[in-house]
């Protein structure tokens, strides 16, 4: 049995029952239940969430991707900064990345003003943060591997020379 198979199926659809997963993996249902319990106990499965198409909600949320650059000192490392930032409920994801900036942070709020105030009042004042660049999400086409939208095809006019 492959824990990876079970993990992939849970990522595909966390609402699959243990009976569904057992059928798809040719395992006994009790084996699937035990595997999921072990994965949860080991901290490999940290939670289950719905993928929401916020664009379809009238009371939509404002989301932003924020680039953060930091300067480290002898007492402060990346993990220290990440621990401080991850505590804020507005922060939905935080990643240390390679490239032109150090952290990629996903933020949500009820308005652009709320998100902007959070970044300027809570994030930017952190002494090690030297620069923030905020990109507001205009439309999401895919989240967590799931395509969003109404499923309609490309509505651009065709062009023939």
Automatic annotation (TrEMBL):
Lineage, top ranks: Archaea, Methanobacteriati, Methanobacteriota, Stenosarchaea group, Halobacteria
Keyword annotations: DNA-binding, Transcription, Transcription regulation
InterPro entries: AsnC-type_HTH_dom, Dimeric_a/b-barrel, Tscrpt_reg_AsnC-like, Tscrpt_reg_AsnC/Lrp_C, WH-like_DNA-bd_sf, WH_DNA-bd_sf
Residues of the HTH asnC-type domain: 1-79
Record bears the keyword Cytoplasm: no
Annotated Gene3D superfamilies: 3.30.70.920, Winged helix-like DNA-binding domain superfamily/Winged helix DNA-binding domain
UniProt name for this protein: Lrp/AsnC family transcriptional regulator
Transmembrane regions listed in the UniProt entry: none
SMART domains named among the record's database cross-references: HTH_ASNC (SM00344)
Gene source species: Natrinema soli
Record-level Gene Ontology MF annotations: DNA binding
Pfam families membership: AsnC_trans_reg, HTH_24
């Amino acid at each position: 049995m492959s824990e990876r198979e079970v993990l992939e199926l849970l990522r595909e659809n966390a609402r699959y029952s243990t009976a569904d997963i057992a059928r798809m993996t040719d395992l006994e249902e009790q084996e699937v239940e035990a595997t999921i319990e072990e994965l949860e106990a080991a901290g490999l499965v940290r939670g289950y969430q719905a993928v929401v198409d916020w664009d379809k909600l009238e009371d939509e949320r404002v989301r932003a991707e924020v680039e953060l650059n930091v300067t480290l000192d002898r007492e402060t490392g990346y993990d220290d900064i990440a621990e401080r930032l991850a505590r804020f409920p507005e922060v939905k994801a935080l990643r240390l990345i390679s490239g032109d900036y150090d952290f990629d942070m996903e933020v949500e709020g009820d308005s652009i003003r709320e998100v902007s105030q959070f970044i300027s009042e809570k994030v930017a004042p952190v002494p090690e943060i030297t620069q923030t660049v905020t990109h507001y999400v205009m439309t999401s086409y895919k989240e967590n591997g799931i395509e969003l939208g109404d499923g309609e095809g490309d509505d651009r006019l065709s062009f023939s020379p």
